[in-house]
Amino acid sequence: MLRFYNYELNEKAKEYIEKIKNDSKKLDKENQKFIEDIFLTKKNETYYSYGGYLGSALTQELETKKDVKFNDIFPKSIYPALKLLMGEKFFKIFIEISKNITNYPFSSGYNRRMVRSKSYFNYIELLFNLLRNFVDLYFLNIDVITIIKREYEKGVYGIDNPYYIAYEIDNGNQEVIDLIKGALGSQKSEIDLTYNNMKAIFISNNKELIELTGKLLLAAKLQEGVRQQICENMDSGLQENFEYMFKIIYDNNLIRFSSVKRALATWTGLAGEGADISKIGKKELEIINKLIDNPKYEDELLKSDDNIEVYLGLWNKSTRDIKYSVEAIEKLLKSSKYHIKLLISYYLYVIVNTTYKREIAKKVIKEYGDSKKIVEILACYLNFVINYGSASNLKRNIENGEIEPKTYFKNKNEAIEFFDILEKALNLMDGKDKLFDPCIFPWFYQSIRTNTIATAMALITVFYPDDSLKNRMMKYLKEIDTWNRNYYLEILFEKPSNKEEKDFVIAMLSDRSDAGIAAYEIVKDNNLIKEYPREIEDLLRLKSGDRRKKLIDLLMSQDKKSLLLSIDNLISAKNENKRLAALDILNQTNSKEKPLYDKKEVKNLIAKISAPTDAEKILIENLSDKKKKESENTLNKLYNTEYKLDLPYEVKNVEKLSKTIKKNKKGEYIIETTSNPKKFFSKSTDDLFEIVKKLSELYEKNEEYEYFGYYTKDYVLLRDKFEPIKDFSGLPHNERGRLSNRPLENVWRNFYKKEIKDFPTLLQLYLLLMIGMEGRNNKELTEVQENIYMKMLGFDVMELLNKLKEANLKYVFSTIPYDPTTYHPAGRVIDIIGLLYRDYSEENKKYLFEFGKAVGLYVLENIDPKYMVEETKNYRNETYYKIVLNAVAFVYTNMYYIIIKALENLEEFYDEKSFIEAFVIRYHLDEKLNEYINENLKEYKIDGHRRDLGLRNYAIAVNLKIAEKDLIYKDILELDNKSEDEKRVAFSSLDNYMSNYRNILAKKEDKSLAKFNPFMLNEALKIIYDEGRKIVDYLVQNELKRGDSPTKYSELLHGIKRIEGIDYLVQILQALGKETLDRAAYYWGGNDTKKSVLSHLLKVCYPAEKDNSKELAKKLKGTDITEQRLIEVAMYSSQWIEIIEGYLGWKGLVSGCYYFQAHMSDVDRNKEGLIAKYTPISIDDLMDGAFDINWFNSAYKELGAKRFEMLYDSAKYISDGAKHTRARMFADAVLGNLKLKETEKKIEDKRNKDLVASYSLIPLLKDKQKDALHRYQFLQKFLKESKKFGAQRRASEAKAINISLENLSRNMGYSDVTRLIWNMETALINEMKEYFEPKKLDDVDVYIKIDDLGQSEIIYEKAGKELKSLPTKLKKDKYIEAIKEVHKNLKEQYRRSRKMLEEAMEDGTEFYGYEIENLMTNPVIAPILKSLVFKMGNDLGYYVDKKLKSVKKKSVAVKDDSLLKIAHCFDLFESGEWSAYQKDIFDRELKQPFKQVFRELYVKTVDEKGRDKSLRYAGHQVQPAKTVALLKTRRWIIDGQEGLEKVYYKENIIAKIFALADWFSPADIEAPTLEEVQFFDRKTFKPILIDDVPDLIFTEVMRDIDLVVSVAHIGDVDPEASHSTIEMRKAIVEFNCKLFKLKNVTFTENHALIKGERADYSIHLGSGLIHQKAGSAINVLPVHSQHRGRVFLPFIDDDPKTAEIMAKVLLFAQDDKIKDVFILEQIK
Fold first, then answer.
1. Residue 1414, number of CB atoms within 10 A of its CB
2. Rounded-to-integer distance, Cα 156 and Cα 140, Å
3. Could you read off the pLDDT of 403-441 as tens digits, one per residue?
């Protein structure tokens, strides 16, 4: 209500609300209160929309009232307030609609049911929605015609109220009725048939509109969308309207459509959104039909044992009034039938009264409290009793009375009774969540989690927190989800009152969720450390870094004596973690100026550690006097911590700037300036307006200019788009916004020269326009900002924009009139000014610098720092301050834009003088802001960067000797007064600059240097690098000395990405001790725990130039660092692999480490070359699960079992758990630890894809061939079974099979998977050979015969004669069963072989000569190969007896190692011999296994070249189910998110079809329309120009789509067939005509022309349509099969259209033989 997606409307609405509030003061107190409550948006920390609070309050108030009337909700006494809100007219309509509202269902939304009620209580939400709607209509002054025509303002949504539209229909508004009639009819309509317009029809009493809707439903046919729109709304209105429509559905069996099934599920509530509706249909329809004919049938249904029948009986009662179904529920509850009790839980969702639902639920739960069925009962009913979710606000809600125990339970006794029931259920669940599937209905399920029950128990305990309940709850608190557990711990045990509670809180300190932190706070607040010091000491045995810090904090809160005892206990412990905690405490207590314990005490304590570990040695050493002194002096040695830069200056106005910086007598820098900010804005608003106007006119003059747009990849007009004309993705960002990348560059440059004339004017134009663009477009200047700009510049900076907004000039803004809510308000004119500014600012940097200097000095001397920050509130209503005025302030929404842009130019210094001037101004601006913040805002959070100057500028200042190096140290190491973000930036900047300098030293290209000002850049980077190394060393050394407590730099060290040297490596490992490495730090960065920071430092630690394995051996002497730890380092930080291999002397360590990295982690692309040294398998395939057996065997052999196991264990740090497990599975498979039969059974049971990939790696049995064949068949069977699953699962299982076959091919020693497959297929044949010989069964010979095409059949012969069928007595013979299975396998092999050979042709797969010869021994594959044309080098021909014989009878010998491929028609086309091979195929009547010689070829057109998409099939409508089925056979993938795509892995290309379609919807949906075909790079996902797509890929993709368009098109007639299809058909028909010796047939481009005896005819070679010359079309019934059989097609592929056209040519070429009267009548 009164909220719009339109800025201006929202502003007006605010004024309107204030007006209503003011006007309401004239009304009485009751009406004033109503208005006040309507606009109340927050009460007791709960937020409401307008009207939300009042609706909610009334629902609670009236919940117990039996029969609620309209007057109970809106009494007549508040009618004045209603009239004030919605006006007299809409008030009357509101009252009229409300009178009839109970005739309509009250339920709405996805989970609605068709339920009505005579009690207005159920309609409260609907009435308030109506009220809100009428208030909006009154405010917007909108009538019903405007609503249904959708002619209201932009940004207004949800305004089309169906009840209001229905009211107008019923009150005879003829215009409304006619408009809706028009939408229901077939003619072009003025309005859309929207959801709410349709709803209005069913709410209305207009029988004519209902009948028209019924007719439309019947006429919908393939328009599933229309059918869905009608059916899903027909339950929204009057019952008689529903029944009328239902009868149409019933009588016409429309339940066959999925939309009707979905609608039936919605009316009744039998299934929700997304449920499986396949099991819903005719049965339910029959029941509803009977109920409509005989409403009393419902009572019969209620006696049924069938849940669906009972449910529909209840549903039918509620369609009249829900109270009847409630009465029936009461009777059913007395039933002893368990399934009926469950059913009632499903029905409760219809009821609005939550109290009633709660009471029913409690009643059923109590009934089954002692039963084992209680868990399922709770799964169905518990959420009606308690459905409290997150407890984050529970404490506050209980305190302010928003949640009360009496809402849930009558009294404490009932609550405890429930607690008992829940406890029993939880124990029955035994810590496991339960799923009941199916439950209630076959398609429905319910589940319950242990968390749900434990949370309900915790809430009861919060309501009645006596010691007994709290004590019982302790046992179950850990069942609550980790994100909620802490809140309940905090509420229940905030002040533990007895020993049990205190013990429990102490135990919860070890909880790794936030509950552990909550426990820490409770212990601290209640000073439990006094009572539990030993228990807390004992918890320090745990490793978790976060917990340890908090436990140490607790111990350190003790007095000196108690702490000493704790230290003593810990340091004396056997557990190293405890001893480390003691040393950490000692380090902290004794690092202060006044140590807590004297030297002697410390010495005695340390002496208790007899054999300190490396980690302990470090902390012990820190406690020595020498180390303590070193530690105290380190910082002071590094830099002067007291250093303060003093930069006094004097401003001097001069006419001409001098070349060098000068100082005055006081030693102050003289900053010269030639002008103040006002002089930079010399042009008047009128002058600037005229320039913009002329540019607008110039753009308009050129708006018809056509250019090729880079984004659209098409020709566009300037009026439609102003986009780049070239690819600039490879350019640096500062080069992309160039005018040279846009159309008509010279036109705009000439405009600059002639009209703008100079850069100062352009600068002024740019700034005054841009202040109102981007996120600033709907902002206004504050009074303070107005004053600042006026004093600084002397004019209104918004004047130009305001004038342009009123002028409505074309192309200035993105909309006319100007719309401030637009995301991108700048039009092309402003864009051009921006581009000109970017181009010309390059040559005017000195001018811009002076502008920045003038503004900087003005800000420094004239603007109060309090205006540089802005007070604001966060979502918790807490105050914080945002920095809004400095050079690094966020500019997107900032109205200080002009000042900020000016200050940014101070970075454009170009010599020593300009740098010093800029540095002085910027330094003082930084100081000014920071002094103000430190003095006035110390306690507030500050958002934004406090300093403009940074490390690089400080380094230049040091180089120029205007500052000391101390400034650099202070910037990084002094963290006070810095936000977390600023601290991180300081550390990451240091690391980045050091990396930049390393690249300079290594002479490596570094593109990031281009973004910096080049002045003294190298000198600055050298200073940062030299000092940075000292800083990093200090930080690392500081970190290495720490215990569990973090240093102030700990977390920030994650910003350091490189340290160098063996010393660091060894020290890090010593400091880590026995601590495990951090997986999170390997992938995502970490926190400030010791484990996380040291793991990070280890990962970024690199060998120095001179480091080697001998040096490592020296440094490791005397340390506790184990061999296993070094292996972990090699894996975790692979830059050390070679040095560690040399030290350990482990042969194969390098190979082994890279083996694991390649097979387990998400491999770094930088390692692609390195990994390629060990395996030919691509990184992508390795990630998918491909496995290099040779690499594994080599690594395993070199390392041995024990060492390989150590490597495997170390690899857990570099991968997620699943990949680590997969690596184990692979290794187990190769080593033979997986058993073949067990693995097969697991695959069949679990269909685990990693197991499928591993299966092929199990060592082959002695008879390799037989074993491989068995596995090949098993994988093929798995793939076949995959067809029963959904598209995504099918695709992922197919991928797993491909990987497994590749793994099997490597296991067999083949170079690629194709070789394996052909070998297996041939071996399959050899196994079947016995069945090719006749076997006598009684007196019948049975054998398999394979014909000349490779197709098999079973032959039954008796006495030399072939039988038509097998004698009955032999049908059950075992040999017959076996031969049938073999026959089935042969058919399957034939199908696979055809498909694979066609794919081999498409992919250009090469075969060796010996492989082709081997395949020629296969009786299934040999016939297929004989008819194919092969290509070897430049030679083409058929394969005959180890020779390639061309069509010209030329023979070329094929050697065993010769490489051949199946020629593609593109090869034939290029050879110039295509037609010769076509003729040869016809002359010899060869049938090819697939289209090869007569394959359609698709070449790139002129229109397609230079673009990245093809539009040749745009606009074609296709049937989605047919399309998907066709493309699946052509290796296309149908993905839920990506749509249709075909992936070429070898070439790294993805082809995609874009269409307005949902390919996963049922078959009967509206036909999708194809858009474009586009090609993408598989790795970068960037579009590829069609020119760069290989011709072979292009032609095959286009052929696939042409197939779709011709076979899956919408309509009865072929669409205009493609040129390629017509060309092929023409060739086939021509050759057939020669075959049949027809001389009266000639051809044009698209037609066969026939000179008949009766007449002349033309037959279209695309569609097959026949026309008589000088006559009309001739309609021919389907051609008789005997005619079609005479047609010769030179391929086996089914192509009925070509056969049909050829048959028609034959028929009409011999028209004197036509006997068909139907045809003869048409020939005139």
1. 15
2. 9
3. 889 888 999 999 999 999 999 999 999 889 999 988 988
Angstrom distance (rounded) from CA 309 to CA 479:
39
CA distance 594 to 597: 9
Q: Is 822 helix (H, G, I), strand (E, B) or coil?
A: coil
Q: How far apart are CA 952 and CA 990, in angstroms?
A: 9
Over residues 1141-1154, mean pLDDT? 89
Cα 1456 to the chain's mean position, in Å?
Answer: 51
Name 762's Cβ contacts closer than 8 Å, sequence gap at least 6. Answer: 752, 756, 833, 836, 837, 840
Would you state the pLDDT for residue 733?
A: 62
Q: Is 948 exposed, middle or buried (0-12, 13-18, 19+ CB in 10 A)?
A: buried
**Whole-angstrom distance, CA of residue 1415 vs CA of residue 1442:** 12
**CA distance readout (Å), 1408 to 524, 1110, 1411, 1427, 1437:** 79, 51, 5, 18, 16
Outline where DSSP puts E strands in 1361-1485: 1361-1362, 1406-1408, 1429-1432, 1435-1440, 1443-1445, 1451-1453, 1459-1462
**pLDDT tens digits for range 884-917:** 999 999 988 899 999 999 999 999 999 999 999 9
Which residues on adjacent β-strands are paired with residue 814?
Answer: none
Cis peptide before 496 (omega within 30 of 0): no
Confidence of residue 728 (pLDDT cuts 50, 70, 90): low
Whose CA is closest to 1142, among 1117, 1167, 1194, 1107?
1107
Per the prediction, the chain carries an average pLDDT of 86
- In eight-state DSSP terms, residue 756 is I
pLDDT, tens digit, 9 for 90 and up, residues 347-362 = 888 887 788 889 899 9
- Nearest-10 crossing angle of helices 912-936, 845-862: 30
Sign of CA pseudo-dihedral 1569, 1575, 1581, 1583: negative
3-state SS, 1678-1716, equals: CCCHHHHHHCCCCECCCCHHHHHHHHHHHHHHCHHHCCC
What does 696-735 look like in DSSP terms, one character per residue? Answer: HHHHHHTTT-EEEETTTTEEEETTT----SS--TTS-HHH
What are 1346's strand-pairing partners? 1352
As a whole number of angstroms, the distance between CA 589 and CA 595 comes to 6
Half-sphere exposure of 1078 (CA within 13 A, CB side): 25
* 207 close to 195: Cβ distance less than 8 angstroms: no
pLDDT tens digits, residue range 114-168? 888 899 988 988 999 999 999 999 988 888 998 888 887 777 778 888 999 999 9
Q: Is the CB of residue 1431 less than 8 Å from the CB of residue 1380?
A: no
3-state secondary structure of 579: helix
Q: What angle do CA 672, 953, 882 make, to 5 degrees?
A: 90
